[in-house]
TrEMBL record:
One GO cellular component term noted in the UniProt record for this chain: extracellular region
Start and end residues of each stretch annotated as Disordered: 1-31
A Pfam family that the UniProt record links to this protein: Transglut_N
Superkingdom of origin organism: Eukaryota
The gene coding this protein: F13a1
Name listed for the protein in its UniProt record: Coagulation factor XIII A chain
Species: Elachura formosa (spotted wren-babbler)
Function in brief: Factor XIII is activated by thrombin and calcium ion to a transglutaminase that catalyzes the formation of gamma-glutamyl-epsilon-lysine cross-links between fibrin chains, thus stabilizing the fibrin clot. Also cross-link alpha-2-plasmin inhibitor, or fibronectin, to the alpha chains of fibrin.
Amino acid sequence: MSETSSTNEENKLPLNGRRAIPPNYSNDEENEVPEMETFGFIPRGFNPRDYLRVVDINMFKDPHEINKQEHHTDKYYNPKLIVRRGQAFQIQIDFNRPYKPETDQLWLEFLMGRYPQQNKGTYIPVLVGNVLKPGQWGAKIIHRENNSIRLSIMSSTTCIIGKFRLYVAVLTPFGILRTRRNSATDTYILFNPWCQLDAVYLDDEKEREEYVLNDVGIVFHGNVEEVKSRSWSYGQFEENILDACLFLMDKAELELSGRGNPIKICRVASAVINSRDENGVIAGSWNNSYDNGVAPSAWTGSVDILLEYYSSKQPVRYGQCWVFAGVFNTFLRCLGIPARLITNYSSAHDNNANLRLDFFLDDEGKVDTRLTKDSVWNYHCWNEAWMTRPDLPVGFGGWQVVDGTPQETSDGMYRCGPASVQAIKHGHVCFQFDAPFVYAEVNSDIFYTRMEKNGTQVVEKIDTTHIGQLIVTKEVGGDGMVDITEEYKFREGSDEERLALETAVMYGVKKQSIQDTTYQPQTDVDMDFQAQKAVLGNDFKVTITFRNKSRNSYTATTYLSGNIVFYTGVTKSEFKKHSFSAKLEPSSSSSFDIVIKSSEYMNDLLEQASFHFFVTARINETGKILAVQKAIMLEIPTLRIKTKGELVAGKETSVIVEFTNPLKQTLENVTLRLEGPGVLRTIKKQFGRIPMNSTLTWEVRFIPMRPGLRKLIASLNSNALRHVYGELNVQVQKP
């Protein structure tokens, strides 16, 4: 077989009985475009050089030039042209002679992928006309001078998102002459929240600056009573991040023709952010062992994770919910979809979506860990993305919940959303996607159920207010916290809340009725549990208070169980058991203090330094049980960051990170990380050990890249201590 015929064989498309063209998944692959496309017979003496020929194309693609300025893409660390759809941009074409509009005919071609097709939006011919129509492809000449013309080009508001190849085509009597393939004229087209006709249009400039252009955010963690915050570097404008984000859609095998639709993009991205299906970006680990990887708490931002995945094509180890949400936020903002990171405190992970979390108690009133399968996460992070929902009735556009943390499967894959926040609030959980699961995360009730010897279940207490009691996000234009609970649910106990619940049940959310079980709570005695502020490595005390509202004397046999838990509410070990008998006088309150010693908890402590206390009390005279649970966070020391002298873009400077070990033990295997978008790329350093009470000092020399208000973020990670952060706002001066 000759060489020529074998290459012809290879160029033939693979046969497939269902479609003439293979699926077009890859933004990177290319087809060959002929420079001379003849119309048949070419006469002797024909010389393409006699016709209008393109000598050069100027894309005005530098950050300070008109295109990137007007399209809000000047921050992208990328030398190519980046524009937003539905908005005009300019290019200049230089020819070998002056352009004659009467006789010369030319057009532009934008191509994407290996099999460009006009009806799929992957081959776009743009004719030069006299007028630009809003939201439709078109081009018109706005300036002619010597051998050059300047074009204003309008893209469609439904155009697919990604990297297009650009050709200029000139018509001659015998065929079409095209410019050579030139990667310097490649054009990225992104979503446009500034354009009223775009599905992601957001009408508030301050919100656009926050939800699209801000490259640093805040993750709220801890628990309801002790909200903690840390900075996260999204870094959506950093070098190669845009290409990495486009690669995620290739990896998820999203057909190129579907990439203009933010609903589809969010749905496939929520699956590809986690590694549970098709080797996505981040491998989750919730078991406190992070061999061959980075502990979730050590990451300071998304850039390292996305770049590692883009180069290795293998899941990056390891993440937990805020890492999935941080990377997802980078992906959305990078493509131009307004996005924010949300924290839901006391988030229900309800395994059978029946709006009820069952905590089973044994005869003595202690929690039976064997039977209890549901869990309450201290907090759970997800994302909201802003878009219209033409697939739903009017009124359900706006913020949509999307979640990349693998919790439950949806249509056979670990993904969640987009689910309309408005639909969740009103109980319209019939609208796609995954609204019942999110509704349960913020609205479930906790049932404390005692199993009797004969197998009957006695419900001892129902807590309707514990789950989803606080839902927050970062404020626009600042680092503060905004309470958005009311966007997800009506006020507890209001008529509207009851109506929303009835609607959700009507639309198929399972809600078990109390009638299935006996339920007679003890109403004349209240029990409360409080803890004083607890600092890591110190003793602290907790207080149980009873209020007897009756005229009877009671005695209460009380159990306290202190557990070290993962932030997902799953217990690692019980470190404290304490029981006592409390005498409750009529119409009075009585308090009981219990001391928790550091020696009891330090050995088993997990990285988020989080405890979960269950207190149950049996009123001996009536046999009724009172139950309360509470999560407590220890105060963790922080890193201190200081700069030496002023920071000037392009000039070397240094910054100092300090940490004092407060524990009564030496810290082993200490790793420090420091990063700041626009200031410095992530730098890591390993330190062997830090003895107790001693201070570690690390000086980093670097050259700040861009002027403006920036943020430095540092983290410390070690075997015994994680979730140690520090941050500093710095002003980088212009040179």
